[in-house]
What we know:
By secondary structure, this protein is an alpha/beta fold. Helix content is 11%, strand content 27%.
Amino acid sequence: MLRRVLRELVDRALVGPRPAPVRPAPPSGARWTEAAAPAAPEPEPDLEVELPVPGSLLLDIREPGELAGGIARGALCIPMDMVPHQLDHLPRDRAITVYCAAGARSWGVAHWLREQGFGGAVSLAGGIGAVGATERPPGPPGRTLDLPAGWVEGVWQPATRGEVILQDGAVLRCRVRDAQGFWVERRVAVADPAGRGDPGRGSASFRGGTPDEGGNEVTPGSCRAG
């Protein structure tokens, strides 16, 4: 009964009220708001686990601002609202242990992933406290940056405000709102991947630019922290 209530809350938060007609399942990469709300799920006793499945992909669905306290070693961090955009990055032939802060959000996401064909998705009941060893995330998660207009994967993107998810080597993974108001990922290169210049304090830019008035390297693909 409790899990059904949680499922209803997750559906309302991610999908909205259940429509009267039942539509077909959305294609890979569909947004939460486009997903058909399925009928009440049958009991799935194996959907929730107390410990991460050995050899599974650890999927952290918490918000960027929640990551500063630590993430599971080797975890893939995708905020919950962005999971539908990142299905191509998730394995279908490997177990996925989804975790959040305490296990409520991860339960709904794990169930939804199973509906999309990820049969090995499970929810970690204890959340981040049950993942075992953690590490400090690279980059300034949760920090906002001004991203200038530029070409991103062959598409012109306007200047916008982005929120850092994590730093991946010389690249900052940021999330921004698209034209429809949904969160999507946008990546920007940092001038100093070794961390000598903290992009959370100054500017972060692509290499090969020209210095600005403050001596920072700036190009049309640069970003500045706020």
